[in-house]
Design a protein that fits this description.
The chain has 76 residues and is mainly alpha-helical. 80% of the residues lie in helices and 0% in strands. It is rod-shaped, with a radius of gyration of 31 Å. It starts with a helix and ends with a helix.
Length: 76
């Protein structure tokens, strides 16, 4: 009986160590990969909202161009 208890402890310690090692394992090599995956997941979930920046920039550029054309016609 004494021998079976001694043998069971190292076995259970090995199993616990394997489980702990698996729990601490990370699929990302560094924090940059983790951050990129986190941002991609949040974008897919719609957390950041629609992309309106390009559209606003194009409308602003078109307005400035139209204004310059009007000013050029006024001077000519």
């Amino acid at each position: 009986m004494w021998r079976s208890q001694l043998h069971a402890d190292p076995l259970s310690l090995e199993v616990c160590a394997e489980r702990a090692g698996a729990a601490l394992a990370c699929e990302y090599a560094n924090s940059t990969e983790f951050d990129a995956a986190l941002i991609a997941a949040r974008r897919a979930a719609g957390v950041y909202g629609p992309k309106r920046h390009r559209r606003r920039m194009l409308v602003t550029a078109a307005g400035i161009a139209a204004g310059l054309v009007v000013v050029a016609f006024l001077f000519v």
